[in-house]
Write a structure and sequence with these properties.
The protein has 239 residues and is an alpha/beta fold. 30% of the residues lie in helices and 18% in strands. The N and C termini lie far apart (53 Å). The structure holds adenine.
């Protein structure tokens, strides 16, 4: 079965958007994956096709109705066993290991939140897993869904030209990626590190590893502390 992303959104016209160009777009055109953007509003039942209402208990904004969203989910994945995600700044942060799992499965149903949120009852009743792409607030889940889908699609078999580039990149080994250089040899007085043009593959590999480690320590102490093979040690500041 072809890997498929089903997106439930109030703005289906936002798709494929950036997913229709470059690597993901070419793979979409050649049938390596499928994208289905469904309009949540098609599941509204009243005359005004309303999808939202004011929050119980008061407060600003509007909340996506449980009945309408539940009907949209049921219409989208009837009888299928696929991961159901809700893009939300409240979710657990998306990780590369979660992306790998999603890419290895049949492909998710992704709900894009809007307004102030989604009625909690539908999150529970339809077992939606809330996923965040970072600690900032977007105006809706669509761009977050695109980020998640893009991260999955590039890992599908046949999508990346050279499979190796999927393994030697940031996060795969728990480290950020080492710096890259290409021609010209001199740029505004800066030259390419000698080791990289030495032809000594072992030295190049050692240099890259140490650069990746130094970058990770400096920029992402959280990743450095949690890198694979690292025994969890008690920090001296823990008391
Ligand atoms: N919707 C709004 N902000 C979001 C975020 N940071 N991650 C996922 N979905 C969102």
């Amino acid at each position: 079965m072809t890997w498929r992303a089903t997106v439930l959104t109030l703005f289906p016209e936002m798709f494929p958007g950036p997913l229709g160009v470059s690597l993901a777009g070419k793979a979409l055109t050649s049938g390596l994956w499928r994208l289905e953007a469904r309009d949540i509003r098609d599941s509204a039942t009243d005359r005004h096709r309303s999808v939202d209402d004011t929050p119980a208990g008061g407060g600003p904004g509007m909340v996506l109705r449980a009945d309408v969203l539940a009907a949209a989910i049921d219409a989208a994945d009837a009888g299928q066993d696929r991961p159901r995600l809700l893009m939300s700044p409240r979710g657990r942060p998306l990780t590369q290991s979660q992306v790998k799992k999603l890419a290895a499965g049949p492909g998710p149903v992704v709900v894009c939140g809007r307004f102030e949120g989604v009625d909690q009852r539908v999150i529970e009743a339809r077992h939606l897993e809330e996923v965040s792409i970072g600690d900032y607030v977007l105006s809706g889940g669509e761009i977050a869904a695109m980020a998640l889908i893009d991260a999955c699609v590039r890992l599908l078999p046949g999508v990346m030209g050279k499979q190796a580039s999927g393994e030697d990149e940031s996060f795969s080994e728990g480290l950020l990626e080492y710096p890259q250089f290409t021609r010209p040899q001199a740029f505004e007085g800066r030259t390419i590190p000698e080791i990289l043009i030495s032809g000594d593959h072992a030295k190049v590999a050692a240099w890259r590893k140490s650069e990746a480690e130094a970058l990770t320590r400096a920029r992402r102490p959280d990743l450095w502390a949690a890198r694979p093979g690292q025994k969890a040690t008690k920090s001296t500041t823990d008391g």
